[in-house]
Amino acid sequence: MNASRQMRLGLSMRYLGYHIAAWRHPDFQPTSIVEFETYRDIARKAEAAKLDMIFFADGVAVRGSDNPAGALSRDMKNAELEPLTLLSAIAACTSRVGLVATASTTYNEPFHVARKYASLDHISKGRAGWNVVTSWSDQEAQNFNRVANLEKDERYARAAEFVQVVKGLWSSWDADAFTHDKATGQFYDPEKLHILNHKGKFFSVRGPLNSCRTPQGEPIIVQAGASSQGRDIAAEHAHVVYTNSLDVGEARTFYADLKDRAASFGRRSGEPLIMPGVTLYVGATKAEAQAKFDELQRLIDPVAGLALLYTFCGDLSAYDLDKPLPPDFFTNGISIGGNLLAKARRENLTIRQLYEDVAAGYTGRYLIGTAEDIVDDLQHWFETGAADGFNICPPILPQGMDDLATFIVPELRRRGLFRSDYEATTLRGNLGLASA
Ligand SMILES: Cc1cc2nc3c(=O)[nH]c(=O)nc-3n(C[C@H](O)[C@H](O)[C@H](O)COP(=O)(O)O)c2cc1C
After folding, report:
1. What are the structural domains, with CATH classification, of the chain?
2. Nearest C-alpha to atom 1 of ligand 1 is from which residue?
3. What span, in angstroms and rounded, lies between the C-alpha atoms of 378 and 436?
4. Which is the most buried residue in 4, 98, 114, 136, by most CB within 10 A?
């Protein structure tokens, strides 16, 4: 293992917390979910801790359905800020931390995405990243002139072409295309302009992008989506892959598979970086960490818990919450649901235990313990081919960021696993990626 290999860390900030009952915590300010200052202050703390990036998952709808009845009105996930707008404002208040926002390839046009992220890259002086998702809900489809989401193969075929077009647009101009020669009157050198003229199955895009080459050359591409089609897009294009692996064996298989696929696309060794999500409940003692966890678990409303499962598994409200999952339990075919089903079966969980488990990490992995306990686990993943770093999904913010800075980052540094200062001014540079 390379002694100088450093762990990558992102902070996932959506909804100010990944615990489903975060908003009911006595210290949580529900109005802060749409207040810029809250996000700005957390982003500054992330930068002070030298994290690689802050990260915003996103969806283009209120995705919950009112199943079981009353669920929607108990859900904090129905009011948020649009992440690119938010990151543009945060860009002005930070100088080093990477700024990654999610945008859907199903409910956008490539030109929009190319332009917005190029702009964010300029505004932030080279810190922009696009998390590519294909979207999974019918509620999103219904905000974009459709009844149901596109079928999976179609979604991914569109996504593959979409990413190609965006990258093509980002390459519209050579870095030195804009000569700004006041004496001759030449603003740019026409030899250094490349018109895309893309004509494909889904898109017809002439280009060029009305923005010059960005500080990173191209913004960073992050990919989230674990199916074979998603992995191929990641292997070809992504710099970072955000996953939700639940156990280390599965994570290693995923990691090896993705690096193999990337090699077959001729990618530079080590790319893309694999960053599983993980939710941390950390305290000065095990008891303190457990108390933080228990306090949030006690706040879970059963209707909201069942709603969390509904998205992936359908309506389970007719069943006894304290019995194991019914045999006809199904998932809607997306990878997150499949992981849940496997975990429930493996650990023989009751419905209540399953939703409590999901609520604690919002479908992802969670850890409870002291800094030493947690860093032992993260280090094990990092050093045994399961991860290049982690996208930390705190249960509640800003407390989760404070815990990261107080407990986890110092312990990682003590073990030589995490930087004490940024190496570069761009996200690409800090992630140690090749220039574009
Ligand atoms: C770790 C992870 C994070 C994701 N984040 C988002 C997101 O922020 N917004 C979104 O619309 N979809 C998100 N997705 C969903 C994927 O884009 C995709 O639509 C879904 O996972 C189904 O495809 P899959 O079977 O390839 O995973 C995420 C998926 C994973 C695995």
Report:
1. 8-282+366-430 (3.20.20.30)
2. 243
3. 30
4. 98
* The pLDDT of residue 344: 85
The CA distance from 351 to 372, in Å, is 32
Decide: 59 in ligand 1 pocket, CB within 6 A.
yes
No. of H helices and E strands in the chain?
Answer: 15, 11
> How far is 224 from 150, CA to CA, in rounded Å?
17
Considering only CA atoms, which residue is closest to atom 12 of ligand 1? 135
Interhelix angle 286-297/351-361, rounded to 10 degrees, is 110
- What residues contact 172, with CB distance under 8 A and at least 6 apart? 193, 194, 195, 196, 207, 208, 209, 211
For residue 127, give the amino acid letter: R
CB distance 225 to ligand 1 below 6 Å: yes
Q: In ligand 1, which atom is closest to the CA atom of 228?
A: 26
pTM comes to 0.94
How close is the Cα of 332 to the center of ligand 1, in Å? 13
- State if residue 104 touches ligand 1 by the CB under 6 angstroms criterion: yes
| Residues 403/280, Cβ–Cβ less than 8 Å | yes
Helical packing angle, 228-237 and 152-170, nearest 10°: 10
Terminal CA-CA length for the chain: 27
**Whose Cα sits closest to atom 31 in ligand 1?**
225
CB 212 within 8 A of CB 178: yes
What are the per-10-residue average pLDDT scores of the chain (436 residues)?
Answer: 81 94 95 97 98 97 86 89 98 98 98 98 98 94 95 96 98 97 97 98 98 97 91 97 93 97 94 97 98 97 90 83 79 68 85 91 91 98 98 97 98 98 98 91
For residue 360, how far is the Cα from the chain centroid?
A: 17
